[in-house]
Automatic annotation (TrEMBL):
Gene3D superfamilies, sorted: Electron Transport, Fmn-binding Protein, Chain A
Catalytic activity: pyridoxamine 5'-phosphate + O2 + H2O = pyridoxal 5'-phosphate + H2O2 + NH4(+); pyridoxine 5'-phosphate + O2 = pyridoxal 5'-phosphate + H2O2
Gene name as annotated: pdxH
Cofactor: FMN
Protein name, as recorded: Pyridoxine/pyridoxamine 5'-phosphate oxidase
Amino acid sequence: MERCSIRQDDHVTDADAVSPDPASMRKQYRAEGLAESDLAATPVEQFARWFRQAATEGRLFEPNAMVVSTADAEGRPSSRTVLLKHFDEQGFVFYTNYGSRKARDLAENPYVSLLFPWHPMARQVIVTGLARRTGRDETAAYFRTRPHGSQLGAWASGQSSVIAGRDGLDAAYAELAARHPEGEQVPVPPHWGGFRVAPQAVEFWQGRENRLHDRLRYVAEADGNWRVERLSP
Ligand SMILES: Cc1cc2nc3c(=O)[nH]c(=O)nc-3n(C[C@H](O)[C@H](O)[C@H](O)COP(=O)(O)O)c2cc1C
């Protein structure tokens, strides 16, 4: 029988609990598909349509959450979730620490993949392209819109570095909070800022019945136009 609660003195490990078998998890995806004739002229316009639907109808907690994958100079990949903060025809923007692992990867190798996992809608969007840093003015304008606590957090964290424990982090935050009380302007950390991913290809994936999904990919052409190709599911 599955245990619902585990008391400290039971000496029960997680392994004793019956865990669901992922191999038996199977969902039938919706029938409405994505046709070439449905697509907008540019991938960013098409993304805007799907993003609007994800935000309004998608029952998604954070539709702007995306998985950012980078690779270092030796080609070793790594992925993490990041929030999309802006998009337009120039690209997709997120903010992070420039000393983080992802930022160090991007300094060596600017090729990046962004994946929006919109599972409740049986959709995903995959952007591949080139990342470059946003300008300091753009970074500063966004930094000023962040809540005071998040502004301090950007100063307190040496993102991706190994630390001795939680205490040092909390102490650094408390010290910063005392130095910059609520209502006071927090300077933009020099080690913090945005990346803009200029898309080279954008795939729109719509789950369909019997695993016969629709996959339509826009690919940038040398003349600045977009070619659309259909991929086998
Ligand atoms: C939902 C969610 C949103 C996140 N948003 C951001 C973000 O916008 N920027 C960021 O630097 N890290 C964000 N993180 C934390 C990253 O996943 C990651 O832990 C951090 O950026 C360090 O990654 P790295 O060591 O691979 O560079 C978010 C995590 C989650 C789960």
